[in-house]
Amino acid sequence: MTTGMRLGSILIFGMLVPGLAYATPFAYITNGASNNVSVIDTSTDFVTATVNVGTSPFGVAVNPAGTYAYVANSGSNTVSVIRTSDNTVTATVNVGASPYGVAVNPTGTYVYVTNYENSTVSVIRTSDNTVTATVNVGSYPIGVAVNPAGTYAYVTNINNSLTASAIRTSDNTVTATFNVGTDPLGVAVNPSGTYAYVANNSGNTVSVIRTSDNTVTATVNVGLWPEGVAVNPAGTYAYVANWGANTVSVIRTSDNTVTATVNVGAGPLGVAVNPAGTYAYVANQLTNTVSVIRTSDNTVIKSINVGAGPGAFGLFIGPEPSPTPSPTPTKTPSPSPSPSTSPTPSPITPTPSPTPSRTPTPSPSASSSPIPSPITPTPSPSPIKTPIPAPTPWKLTLDADDFDGDGAGDIGLWRASDGSWRVRDVSIVYYGMNSDIPVTGDYNGDQTADYGVWRPSTGRWWVRALYTNATPLANFYFGINGDVPVPADYDGDFRTDTAIWRPVNGYWAIKNQTRFYYGFTGDVPVPADYNGDGRADPAVFRPAATSGVWYIRNISQKAWGLAGDSVTPGDYDGDGTTELSVFRCSYSRWYILGSPSVVFGQSGDIPVVIDYEGDGTSDRVLYRPSEGNWYIYGVTTINYGVATDVPAVGKTY
User: Fold this and answer.
1) What is the band of 21 on the pLDDT scale with cuts at 50, 70, 90?
2) Longest alpha-carbon distance in the chain
């Protein structure tokens, strides 16, 4: 791939024969947000084709002959079979729910696919693209790799937290389940089949497994949130993509030492090494690029633009083809840019009939930075002329709604048309733009709420404290367009943590803490402290016409609510734990699990949950846009706002 390697001629019997060069393989990059695959010619590092596949493609593997690529479509529960000679999808195979990982055996006769939601692996016979077996493995399998002998497939089980499974391929039986690190994700086997390498996503480590007895012989510290892992053809180095650190760790396998850390694009996920071992390719999910690393000196020599949200989780580069008579251009270096099982719910419903489900409204894009302005107290907001989209059920703000530090929640609005925050009796602050989403919270731990916005078009967070007019507390990129911001205090340090939830695959990312998969498309994220330990618990509400179900990670599940309900969890009894609650607009009723329902509100009202009285319990609050009125149940009515304003306090789903 360098000029010295790609001379366009070879020495035969002491003579240089021009015009004969070796062709190079192609890389197949799954783009989860654009539902296609970018095909990269690794001789030129240009995208030569784009192939439409299923919904939210994630895992990918090219067969040993290089004739077919297999793509796991996590959103459509299928595997697309791409014929590489003309990049045509020749078959679509139905597998289990939320397939993520995919691997092909050395003879190319069987493909192994992890089904995240079913906790199974589908075995596809490639001669007729038929699923011939379904193997039960650990909870929520993600990664899969087959050893070079084809005798075992190794599967990582992310929600078992600490395990991997070994499947004997002769009879598709799990022969061993063994402990690795926390939240294992990517897995790769070395060319001799003697060791497997597992990236432990929450542990920030790689487990080195001796395959003869499935024993962890070493644990290697790498970067933040390692995801993909690949071993070079010589077996001398392993490459680990660290999603949270935007780096690749290079591990020397002879002594399991990290010898280099390479900066790549944002959110590196999949990694693969070309058959010659000269270049490693890294899919950067947040910058929509692939970084090309020259392995001789671990330097990024090029960044390739691909589709949206590239994952390329698996062995996405094909084998080295036979010599071809066409010359091969050389690379031109360029600088690198800076995914819950759905159990059957019990029939528990708080009301005899449902209301229609809501349809989320997409935010328009915006790219310029918010411009803060001086804080000006005001008793009431002024009308605006430009209407804004209605709030969507995906919007979420926090309990941390005390802007003046008096111990009680404040009445606050977000006016998208002019990017203004309007907190009653406190301030008007201009901070944000029309398409931004307000993300209120106490980000610095000073026991007062901070202004914050998340910009979907760029995935950028802007946070500033009330009394620091110009200097932001935070200004960084975290998340991609389509994500849902879910800030909360996940670690119990009395500070709001930056976090996102990805509806297309149920993916949670909590900045500087952890990442995992919980929930899927159609769910509503509802993080809160459900067990009273002072930490927010990841949770989702799954709407259904007969009975909606709450799934609280590692705690419980409970049927409560219907499709169309607004989800309003809060600590209504002051016991330090969050109660399940919904507001049913069509019935003008508020339903709290364990308490009598309350008739309160009317059609068009927006529910808000804040401790308005400062007594340590959540109050039922409704904002009525048609009147600009706030109704605090059993307390008072306050006129503050106009029809197009959106509540910037409380919890609204």
Assistant:
1) very low
2) 96
